[in-house]
Structure formats: C-alpha cells, structure tokens
C-alpha cells in the first residue's frame, strides 16, 4: 500500500489532509511535536513525534523514513507565522520560522526523493497566499513561503521527467489554530474564509487527475475578503 508522509498532521490543514489520504486508502505517517494528541485514530495512521524546527531531530526522522520504500506522497504542511514589526521578532523565532517553513521541507524532499522517483510520487508544499504578495509585518513569513513556492516550481522542472510532481498549494486565510496567538483571525462568515477541508479537497482533486497531467501551482481563496481583528 502506498504511504504518505504528512508534517503538521496533529491539527488544522495537515490533519484534514491526513484524514482525506486515509479515506483514499493511503498509509499515513503523521509528524509533529504533539502528534500523540492527534484526533486521528485509524489503523493505517502512524504517528511520529518530532520538532521539525530542530534540524538534528529532522535528520533522525529522515533516517527512519528513508528505510520505507513505499513513500509515494510527501505533504509539507507544518509551519507557523508571526506577524509583527520586523525588529520585534527575536532571532530565535525568526530562525525557527525559516527552518520549519522552508529548510525542513527542502531537507525532507531531498531525503525522500529517491523513493518518490521510484514510486512516481508527488510532493505537496503548503505555502500561502503570502507567497504571491507582499504584506507589512510579514517579511519573514512571506520570505519563507515565497521561497518554498519557488523551490517547488523549480524542483518540478528538475524531476518531471522522473514522473514526480511537485505542487505548491497557496491558501488564503483558513480557519485553524494558526491564528490562536495572533492579533487577527478568520472571519466568522463561511464565504470569507477557507476551511482545512478545502485544502484537502485540492489535494484529492490533484491526486485524481489522469496520469500525465501535473498541476504545479494552485491558489485557493474564499470568494469574499474577510478578517477579524482581535481586541
Ligand atoms: P495550525 O492549525 O497551527 O497547525 C500547524 C501544524 O504545524 C500543527 O500540526 C503543528 O503541530 C505543526 N507544527 C508547528 N510547529 C511545529 C514544529 N516545530 N515541528 C513539527 N510540527 C510543527 O495551522 P494550519 O493553518 O493548519 O497551518 C498549516 C500550514 O498551512 C502552515 O505551514 C501554514 O503556514 C499554512 N497556511 C495556513 C493558513 C491559514 O490561514 N491557516 C493559510 C495559508 C497557509 P504541533 O504543534 O503538534 O507540533
């Protein structure tokens, strides 16, 4: 049975994608710091605990994953954002954001590409609408997501002849715990925000395209603009 590796599978977009892949018949290996608290209880779901902003821990997980020849899908979902004036962001937070959002997806892709080539698999990188625009208080987050999108599009050019697809999914504001520590959040209105399941729908649609067709870049937005400022 084909196996999907999903980072950030404990909640939000990663959890929704994991649930969908299990429904589609994949084995799923979910990775995050609190993955043992995941609401996913499925015989084909395996949880691996790892802080993916720690390059040594990521290297250990990769050693483990490298022994699995059935890996066909890599979903790089884990990430976080801090949206403050640049000088207010600590070097430690800045560095963790760059590592988790950008370096780790590149390292996981690097380590799993042989299996993905063998299985003619697919990499999904969850970037952001911020990969496509330039917003204030978002310089680091935007740099990581624009970097991840550029990595995806460039890697596709390299691996397409091997039958591997690399997809950059660029979602707008999605109702998840991403905003828990932020000064703003998603709208309460359904047509002014995305749900995590909308991103899982995109993954499923791309997987169900006929062989020989590759969608490489997809932006998902709510129909209307909405944002709630917190008091
Ligand atoms: P979320 O609900 O906060 O989920 C974030 C996930 O990342 C969790 O599973 C979390 O698990 C994992 N994670 C965070 N830090 C980690 C670390 N150091 N090591 C391993 N895993 C870590 O947010 P989300 O909305 O689902 O976000 C998922 C991705 O979508 C992120 O890359 C985000 O940038 C992107 N995105 C989100 C939105 C949005 O509006 N929500 C829009 C565009 C793009 P643990 O806490 O268990 O480690």
Polypeptide structure, described:
By secondary structure, this protein is α/β, with parallel strands linked by helices. The chain has a single domain, classed as 3-Layer(aba) Sandwich (Rossmann fold). It has five helices and nine strands; from the N terminus they run βαββαβαβαββαββ. Helix 3 (91-118) links the parallel strand 4 and strand 5. Helix 1 crosses helix 5, helix 2 (55-65) packs parallel to helix 3 (91-118) and helix 3 runs parallel beside helix 4 (139-159). The protein is globular. The mean pLDDT is 97. It binds NADP nicotinamide-adenine-dinucleotide phosphate (NAP).
Query: What is the arithmetic mean of pLDDT?
Result: 97
What composes the largest sheet? 7 strands, parallel
Order of strands side by side in the largest beta sheet? 3-2-1-4-5-6-8
Supply Rg: 17 Å
In percent, how helical is the residue content?
A: 25-40%
Shape: globular
Per CATH, the superfamily is NAD(P)-binding Rossmann-like Domain
**CATH classification, class level:** Alpha Beta
CATH architecture descriptor: 3-Layer(aba) Sandwich
How many helices does DSSP assign? 5
Termini distance?
Answer: 49 Å
Q: What ranges have pLDDT less than 50 throughout 5 or more consecutive residues?
A: none
Number of DSSP strand runs: 9
- Number of domains as seen in the coordinates: 1
Give the quaternary arrangement of the chains: single chain
Protein structure class: alpha/beta
The proportion of strand residues reads: 15-25%
Q: In sequence order, what are the helices and strands, one letter per element?
A: EHEEHEHEHEEHEE
